[in-house]
Amino acid sequence: MLSEAADRMRKFGLDALPVVEDNETVGTVTDHAIARAVAAGMNPRTTPVKYALTRDTAQDSQGKRVGETARIVEDHQCKENLMKARVTEDCISCGRCVEICPEVFEMGEDRAFVKVSEIPEPYQDAAQEAADECPTSAIIIER
Ligand code: SF4
C-alpha cells in the first residue's frame, strides 16, 4: 500500500523505492507520486503501490542498489510525465469528462473543473480521453 511505501522512504531517508515483482524490479515509486495520488483522492492505506508506479526510464534492469535507483528517479523527476488540465468557458456541462475520469474532473455550478493541480500518472490516459471526447473541446491538456 502507498502508506507502507511512504513509511519505508521516511525510515531510510529516501525519496523513492524500487518496486519488485517476481524478483524483478518493475519500476519505482516516488514520494511525489504518492503525494499526487493522495491529492487525487486515493486512500494511501488501501491503494496499492502500482497506482503510483513509474515504469520506463527509472527501471532498475541492471540490479542497481536502492540508493542508486532513488538517485536515478530524482534525475528523471523533472522529465516525469507531468500533466495538467483546465476547462475553458466553452464547457456546456454535459458531464462526459466526469463520467470518463471522475478522479480528475468534477462538475461545478456553471461548468466542469479540474480538481487536481497535477494529474497523477494512473489517470493521465483517462484525462486525455476526456479531453478528446469533450464535445466542445473545452478541456485543455498541458504537459
Ligand atoms: S466533457 Fe467538455 S463540455 Fe462536457 S462537462 Fe466536460 S468539459 Fe464540459
Give an account of the 3D structure.
- With 143 residues, the protein is α+β, with helices and mostly antiparallel strands.
- The chain has two domains: 2-77, CBS-domain (Roll); 84-142, 2-Layer Sandwich (Alpha-Beta Plaits), CATH 3.30.70.20.
- Helix content is 35%, strand content 20%.
- The chain is built from five helices and seven strands.
- The chain has a three-stranded antiparallel beta sheet. Strands 4-7 form a two-stranded antiparallel sheet. Strands 5-6 form a two-stranded antiparallel ribbon.
- β5 (105-107) and β6 (112-114) form a beta hairpin.
- The longest helix has 13 residues, at 121-133.
- It is elongated and about 50 Å long.
- It starts with a helix and ends with a strand.
- Mean pLDDT is 81; it is low at 57-67 and 72-79.
- The structure holds iron/sulfur cluster.
Task: Write out key terms for the chains shown.
single chain, 143 residues, alpha+beta, CBS-domain, Alpha-Beta Plaits, 2 domains, three-stranded antiparallel sheet, two-stranded antiparallel ribbon, elongated, binds iron/sulfur cluster
